[in-house]
Design brief:
This protein has helices at about 35-45, 45-75, 80-90, 100-105, 110-125, 145-165, 170-185; strands at about 100, 125-130, 140-145. It has about 190 residues and is mainly alpha-helical.
């Protein structure tokens, strides 16, 4: 990052090289722009917030990198991660269907996001929506046979190409999961 760019740009724009050598939209930078942003934060008198800014920006950048890896796997299957998550949630249900409201709550997303994902999955023939026989106000969403097959294939690919990668299963990554669980719990993301 150059001194004339705001620190927020440190988490935008470049994707660099993904693990395994796959090239993305831009080449790797010669240095760490987030580290440089933290240095500039301290230089401008914001030292008490520099580490927090670096943590937030690093999380956002890492999320963009990992989402890029996941998108590369799911895109050929016409799936986004949101649609994949909904499909997987539905395949895990005991009764084969889930209300849209419960799906949104379990995925921790806005109801409009679930509606959008369900609509796109339904248009692709991967789920069906129907009124709940027990609650006239509720709409159930259920994976079709094709939806279950796509979910299984997507999971196999993600397990092989992203989730099962050594850098994703290392002791350091598992420690990061624990740290992020604490962050999520402290933010009220779930009850302990």
């Amino acid at each position: 990052m150059t001194a004339d760019l705001p620190a927020a740009h440190a988490s935008q724009g470049r994707r660099g090289t993904l693990p395994g050598g796959r090239s993305t939209t831009s080449p790797s930078l010669p240095g760490d722009p987030i580290g440089e942003a933290a240095r500039l934060w301290r230089e401008r008198g914001w030292g008490d917030a520099a580490d927090g800014m670096a943590a937030v920006t690093s999380l956002m950048r890492a999320q963009a990198i990992v989402l890029g890896m996941v998108d590369d796997v799911l895109r050929p299957m016409q799936l986004s991660f949101a649609r994949y998550e909904l499909l997987m949630l539905l395949t895990f249900t005991r009764h084969g269907a889930l209300s849209m409201t419960k799906a949104g709550a379990r995925l921790q997303v806005h109801p409009a996001s679930v509606t959008n994902a369900a609509s796109r999955l339904e248009a692709a023939g991967l789920v069906v929506r129907r009124p709940s026989p027990h609650d006239g106000r509720a709409v159930l969403v259920e994976p079709t046979g094709a939806g279950r097959a796509v979910a299984a294939e997507a999971t196999d690919r993600l397990n092989r190409e992203v989730f099962g990668r050594p850098e994703m299963t290392s002791p350091r990554m598992l420690a990061l999961v624990d740290i992020l669980r604490d962050v999520r719990r402290e933010a009220g993301d779930f009850e302990p």
